[in-house]
Amino acid sequence: MKTKLINLLASTVLTGVALAAPLTFDFKDPKGVNNAVFKLDAPLEAINGSGNGISGTVTFDPANPAATKGKIILATDSLTVPNPMMKEHMHSPMWMDVAANKEITFEAKELKNVKTAGDKTTADAVGTLTIKGIAKEVTTPITLTFLKDKLGMRVPNMKGDLLVIRASFTIKRSDYGINPKAPEEKVSDTIDLTLSIAGAAAK
Predict the structure, then answer these.
(1) What is the DSSP string of 100-148?
(2) pTM attached to this predicted model
(3) How many domains would you assign to the chain?
């Protein structure tokens, strides 16, 4: 009887540990919906575009959201704007130089001011943003929504959990060597970035 009780307690503890284990979410979206949106709003012209070449992984523990870490990657050649000539310029060496700089990355180091209510966590994500080989520390407000067992509702015939990340922040074009001499009347030095992505932890 004593042995059975010990085994039962051990099983319960191990089950609890398994349930509490951090989950790894893959942000390479099979639907191709994940995207990053950018906007440069200069006095003479507003430029709006997006990039959907998202990949990367994030480790998230529903029991401890503050421990979240990971890296999100955007393929620079997926950046696009409605005007074909403007897109060509954007991909050129003077601007994003997509041939030499294949990726834009954000690596999250820590979360601050973490608040969780239900399935939603808000925080300030501190990490390193790398564009054109230039790495700078940035802090951005972020919302993490953990959707347990909802992967099948987004991707049919798949079982697992979803983690939806939303973030909005601004950077300076000149800080990352993106044609820093371009006139600010036509091309804003401030770039507004918005990220809306979902990652999957399949079961």
Answers:
(1) T--EEEEEEEEEEEEEEETTEEEEEEEEEEEETTEEEEEEEEEEEEEET
(2) 0.88
(3) 1
